[in-house]
Specification:
About 60% of the residues lie in helices and about 0% in strands. By secondary structure, it is an all-alpha fold. The chain is flat.
């Protein structure tokens, strides 16, 4: 811990300490899910465990989607004018 960072990180630490043991996830169910993935013929490349993980990742994906749509025209504007140059 660095004292200069306490103002920023202390609320995060307090929330983490207060929430410890009150997470929605069940460790036994998580272990069972991992074992199921290990035994799967075609396991997923990525696996989210828990509604909290699903919610956080979905929120991030939604934010990225909105930003991508907002800036799509600028993104596309960086291509060469002569599209035939594309490999």
């Amino acid at each position: 811990m660095i004292a200069d960072h306490d103002e920023l990180f202390e609320p995060l630490r307090a929330r983490r300490i207060h929430g410890s043991g009150h997470q929605p996830g069940d460790p036994d169910k998580a272990a069972a899910a991992v074992l199921r993935i290990v035994a799967a013929d075609q396991p997923p490349t990525r696996l989210l465990l828990g509604t909290d993980a699903l919610r956080l990742v979905q929120a991030g994906r939604d934010a990225f989607e909105r930003e991508m749509v907002t800036w799509a025209q600028l993104s596309a504007s960086t291509d060469f004018d002569d599209a035939s140059r594309a490999a």
